[in-house]
Amino acid sequence: MARRDGPGGDLFDRIGLFLAEQRLSADPEHYRFAHAILSDPDGPIARAVAHLVDGGVRLSRKDIERLGGRVAGVGNPVDAQPRSPEQDIAADACGQVDGFADIVRSMYDETREFGRDLAQSAAAFEHLPRIAGLDEIARIAGTMITRVHDAEARLEQATQEADALREKLAEARVDARLDLLTGLHNRRAFEEAFEARDPAFAPWCLALCDIDRFKRINDDHGHPVGDRVLAAVAGALVGTCQGHFVARHGGEEFAILLGSVTLAQAAGIVEDSRAAIAAKRFRDRDTEALLGQITISAGVTAIHAADTIETALERADRLLYTAKAAGRNQVASA
Questions:
Q1: Spans of all domains in the chain
Q2: Cα–Cα distance between 323 and 334 in angstroms, integer?
Q3: Which of these, 20, 133, 169, 250, has the minimum number of CB atoms within 10 Å of its CB?
């Protein structure tokens, strides 16, 4: 896309690129949503979007709506998967806060303009000839000005509180899709990412990884050590699967959504992860005692056009079981 010179030109280009990447038309509603993200790259909405599209995943309709945007028109290939009740509540809350903030800001702007006009009119009284009753009018105007200023202060505070609440909702939306222990995406985020796969990143593959004999780690060294092992394995997976969507799927199990790779390539990436983890030497940082070798087993499968998340996960889980049954510390793919 050609760059536009002058102030805001770079932002204009980035908005156009964002709309193209997310398969959104150049509708004013889409432009407004993109502008809100890209004009404040460190804001909570931008951070939420960056988290959602990590690993090449495209925003879904429900993602855009929960973040205060609106998908306009028909023919936009943004998916419209049904939302859960808690997702509906979150979307409604974000929409209500956005609407409330807009109303309060509009009231604040109108009140400020009225107060300014009233103050100018009251000031003009001072230059008029003394007329019976004018002092009373000036007194009433002064009282009104004071009340308007009080209303302006309250509306300004309400506007700030509404903006703060909107930021908290956006941050809460991100937190609801994070695993606090490892910092990875959680199961809910993984399920949403699966449903929002972008065809432009096809083919897609799915991997399930499980820490071998993890119960023994907890039993022998305690749960705090087990938690640190989980976090270390998570970090290793992120490091070796850069550009792909890594999530903690539950317990000691991790799920990886890999885009733009064949099954053989995906299995190779996961094999690199397995080898990197097996090569690490884990210690109890409190006692410096070696924990012994920590390994993972994994099942990797290609995602077919007719697959649901349940069928793809079931196939990957069977392959994971195959790897475990074959002696652990290996990757099975099919």
A1: 9-66, 85-175, 187-333
A2: 12
A3: 133
Give the number of other Cβ atoms within 10 Å of residue 261's Cβ. Answer: 19
Instruction: Give the span between the Cα atoms of 258 and 260, in whole angstroms.
Output: 7
At residue 53, what is the residue type?
A: V
- Give the gyration radius of the chain's Cα atoms: 28
Q: Is the pTM of this model over 0.70?
A: no
Give the helix/strand (H/E) hosting 331.
Answer: strand 331-333
Contacting residues for 216 by C-beta, under 8 A, at least 6 apart: none
Q: Is the pLDDT of residue 60 over 50?
A: yes
Catalytic pick among 65, 191, 192, 252: 252
Confirm if 34 and 19 have CB atoms less than 8 A apart.
yes
Domain 85-175 falls under CATH 1.10.287: yes
Whether 288 is catalytic is no
pLDDT at 288: 78
Q: Copy the structure tokens of residue 54.
A: 């990590």
Round to whole Å and give the CA distance between 82 and 88: 9
- How confident is residue 3, by pLDDT bands cut at 50, 70 and 90? very low
Neighbours of 310 (CB within 10 A): 9
Phi-psi region of 124 (alpha: psi -120 to 50; beta: other; left: phi over 0): alpha
- For 327, counting Cβ atoms within 10 Å of its Cβ (0-12 exposed, 13-18 middle, 19+ buried), the class is exposed
Question: Could you give the count of Cα atoms lying within 13 Å of 37 in the half-sphere of its Cβ?
Answer: 26
For residue 159, give the nearest of 212, 226, 112 by alpha carbon.
Answer: 112
Of 150 and 38, which is predicted with more confidence? 38
Fold of the domain spanning 187-333: Alpha-Beta Plaits (3.30.70)
Q: Tell me which amino acid residue 217 is.
A: I
- Burial of 89 (C-beta count, 10 Å sphere; 0-12/13-18/19+): exposed
Give the max Cα distance, the chain: 103
Give the whole-angstrom CA distance, residue 71 versus residue 47: 20
3 state SS of 254? strand
The span from the CA of 48 to the CA of 63, in Å, is 9
Cα separation, 41 vs 45, whole angstroms: 8
- The predicted pLDDT at position 86 comes to 47
